[in-house]
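TICKET #2291
ISSUE: user wants both folds in one file
ATTACHMENT 1:
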Amino acid sequence: MPGKVKAYELQSKSKNDLTKQLNELKGELLNLRVQKIAGGAPSKLTKIRLQRVLTVMNQKARQNLREYYKNKKYLPLDLRPKKTRAIRRRLTKHEASLKTVKQRKKDIHFPIRKYAVKA
């Protein structure tokens, strides 16, 4: 496959086309390995093309997974935001705003007193 393979061109291809192209590139890489052993000049271009195709395939797979899990209750760990360990373990806004039954009763029965001051 001569010339550069652009990532945006690969993203428009279907999964079958990408798989076929991947197999071709693997075959080409195999031939290059044989040539290298025989004493030919090594070429990195095929490796780069191969990696680009694999990258696009993985991006598409992750995008499909994101679509699948969009409205589900739980996300797979690798699709969740990374952040930091402390932030991930922190209480959610809802959990932090909850009050105990005792605190709610106290607020109802003993509201904050409001005073009006005469001027």
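ATTACHMENT 2:
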Amino acid sequence: MAPTISLRSLFAYANHLISQTPLLSSVSHNIPDSIASLFDAGLPSASFQPASDALDETGHGGQPAFAGITPYDPLSGAPSCPLDGPVSCNNQTAADTCCFVHPGGRLLLTQFWDEEVHVGGGEDDWTLHGLWPDLCDGSYDQYCGMTPRFNNITAVLEHYDQAELVADMNRYWIANYGTNEHLWAHEYNKHGTCINTLAPSCYGEGYTPGMEVVDYFIRAFELFRRLDTFRALERVGIEPHWSKSYALADVQAALEEYSGSRVILKCSRHGALHEAWYVWFVKGSLQNGELVPARDSFKGDHGNCPARVRYLPKRAK
């Protein structure tokens, strides 16, 4: 792509902005800070090399392109970290930056309860929104300076032999508007780039661009699989219903007992349950560290739901 803003690029930006803003209007984490943070994802197919005529999200050349398959054992490229290392947001002394998630040491695994059934059999599916590295005080960074950035997430994952993960993501990590590919690139470039242990320098001499992308999506999806929000609520009798309402305290208690972590609940303007954010610390690196449930209070730790919430069945498309 030429190093000027083409009409195609403007349409891609507009599509992505429109695709995410209506769904996430109450979530400040997902407001793009500039047009440079989003751009067209089309890239030429080539063997792995920097694509000199492509732009990354900062407007510079070097967006990697991928073709063929290069097997990579997910999470294996990260450094080995000590078992007794510090827990993120719980350490006052210097630590190995590749074995200690900082400054974004408060991880939020965020899920959606979508209004519509997105795929056959998806009536009971909560879907994955993202994995966000908030700062320890509850504020957050975004679009951090780590390079390269990636707008071709499917190509990266398939290059590293993760076609099965891509299929799972197309089922459970979906955009309400726009394309899944745009959502995935947005999540990685806005949030994944702020997880310091994913820096290329942490992978050593064996690093090739894209390993960190595999590790981010593998780790996020693993955590999502562990947190089955539908089953956690179902087991205490909280199920989607058109006319029932439930005490917010009961919903929150059920999810916090199930996960062991702090849970932030978000509702639509009509008081319908819409999002669940699970809060975690990490002992070690994101790639290989132990996820530790976070139970403390912090800025933004309260949702926007009323005292009684509705949990509506999904509509058929």
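RESOLUTION: both attachments delivered.
EXTRA DETAIL ON ATTACHMENT 2: Residues 107 and 133 are 5 Å apart (CA to CA).
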